[in-house]
Write a structure and sequence with these properties.
Layout: H1 13-44, H2 56-86, H3 92-125, H4 128-152
C-alpha cells in the first residue's frame, strides 16, 4: 500500500507522519555529514605535529569540542537506531517526536562543538581576547540562523499542517 498522497485528496494522518519522518531523516543526513567531518578532524588533531604546543586551556577546549561532536553524532544518528528498533510496530508518531528531539539536541551539541573548535584554533593563533570575541561572534552567527531567524519567521505565510503535534485522532498511538 502506497503512503503517497493522492493528487486532489487530503493527506491521511498516517501519510503525514510517514512524510514527516522521511523529511526529518533527510535533514539529519545534512547535519550528520557536518558533524562527522568535524569529529574526524578533531580525532586527528592530537596526532598533528603542533598539538604538543597547546596549553592547558586549549587542551580543555579541545576536549569540550571533541565530546560535544561525539554527543552530536550520537544524537543525530539515534533516530536511525530508534527506527530499526520500532520498525513496523505502528509507532511512527512516536518516532517522529523522538527524532525531532534528538535532532534538536544534536544541533545544540553541534553548536558547542563548532564554537569550541573555533575557540581552539583562534586561541592557538591569536591573542586570547581576540579568540573569545571571534568565538562569541561565531556563536551569535549560528544562533542567528539556527534559532533567532526560524523563531522570528515562524508565522510567515499560511499555517502548515506539518506543525501539528498530534495526529488527527489526537492519540499519539493511533497512527503508524
Amino acid at each position: 500500500m502506497s503512503t503517497e498522497p493522492v493528487p486532489g485528496a487530503e493527506e491521511t494522518a498516517k501519510q503525514r507522519w510517514q512524510r514527516n519522518f522521511a523529511d526529518l531523516l533527510q535533514e539529519l543526513r545534512v547535519a550528520q555529514t557536518g558533524v562527522q567531518i568535524l569529529f574526524a578532524f578533531l580525532l586527528t588533531l592530537p596526532f598533528s605535529s603542533g598539538f604538543p604546543e597547546t596549553n592547558a586551556f586549549q587542551k580543555d577546549t579541545y576536549i569540550v569540542a571533541l565530546l560535544a561532536a561525539a554527543a552530536a553524532a550520537a544524537l543525530i544518528i539515534s533516530p536511525v537506531a530508534f527506527h530499526r528498533a520500532l520498525f513496523r510496530r505502528g509507532r511512527k508518531p512516536e518516532m517522529v517526536r523522538f527524532a525531532h528531539r534528538m535532532a534538536s539536541g544534536g544541533l545544540a551539541f553541534m553548536l558547542v562543538a563548532m564554537v569550541s573548535s573555533v575557540l581552539l584554533v583562534t586561541d592557538f593563533v591569536l591573542p586570547r581576547p581576540v579568540a573569545f570575541v571571534l568565538s562569541g561572534l561565531t556563536a551569535a552567527w549560528f544562533l542567528t540562523f539556527w534559532a533567532a531567524m526560524p523563531y522570528l519567521r515562524r508565522n510567515w505565510g499560511e499555517p502548515d499542517e506539518d506543525d501539528d503535534e498530534e495526529p488527527a485522532t489526537g492519540r499519539p498511538d493511533a497512527v503508524g
